[in-house]
Amino acid sequence: MATDQVQTRIPPAEERLAGRLAAQPARRPVTTRKTAIAALTELGQIDRAVYRAVAGTPTPVLDRPVRRLSQAANWSRLWIGIAAAMAAVGGRDSRRAAGAGLVALAVDSAVVNGGFKLAARRRRPDRDSAHVPAGRQVPMPHSASFPSGHTASGFAFADAVGQTLPTAAAPLRLLAGAVGYSRVHTGVHYPGDVVLGALIGSSVGELVGWALRRAGRPGTEGR
């Protein structure tokens, strides 16, 4: 219990960022800095309010399947399984798309876990104070909350695959979005973590697809 009391005295990441902005020497007009600080604070408040709203909405029918979807995406197992199925039963384009998707997963993991999470160091949500139902909870990760790695990997995979296999893009993005929502539903991420995770993942997927096309090696092909 003492740990919870200590944690509540640590301000959220957006408030710490706003504090650093306020402490910096005035290099730009005061009104601009005040607006940026106020916007960060308000966005953080909205983020936490939406999180609490999801936590407080009873969804007994959805809780179990959403929890299972969230767990299926641990360590990118969901996307690796889809890539394996594409390579096994698809044609040449499917194998190329699967290879591109796997490359995107690897790059995304390095960017998110080795970059953004270390830099942001946002604390995970407090599920107890938000009263997230126990029936929908999954184990709370120890890594930083921002951005959502599950969401980022899903969108990175979807965008990389979609560049080679356009018909797969929409279904995979929908699935990635569902995984992203599951991370809020289970209480391990704020909505903002998911939204920005999707943007980061999509950017990684697009960049990987472009790089592979430029290199003339769009993924791993069957021989």
Automatic annotation (TrEMBL):
GO CC terms, sorted: plasma membrane
Membrane topology per record: Multi-pass membrane protein
One Pfam family here: PAP2
Boundaries of every Phosphatidic acid phosphatase type 2/haloperoxidase domain copy: 97-209
Keywords: Cell membrane, Hydrolase, Membrane, Transmembrane, Transmembrane helix
Entries under SUPFAM superfamilies matching the protein: Acid phosphatase/Vanadium-dependent haloperoxidase
Location(s), subcellular: Cell membrane
Domain of life: Bacteria
Major subcellular location class: membrane
Example of a GO MF term: hydrolase activity
Location of the region described as Disordered in the Swiss-Prot/TrEMBL record: 122-145
PANTHER family linked: DECAPRENYLPHOSPHORYL-5-PHOSPHORIBOSE PHOSPHATASE RV3807C-RELATED, SPHINGOSINE-1-PHOSPHATE PHOSPHOHYDROLASE
Protein name: Undecaprenyl-diphosphatase
Organism: Geodermatophilus ruber
Classification of source organism: Bacteria, Bacillati, Actinomycetota, Actinomycetes, Geodermatophilales
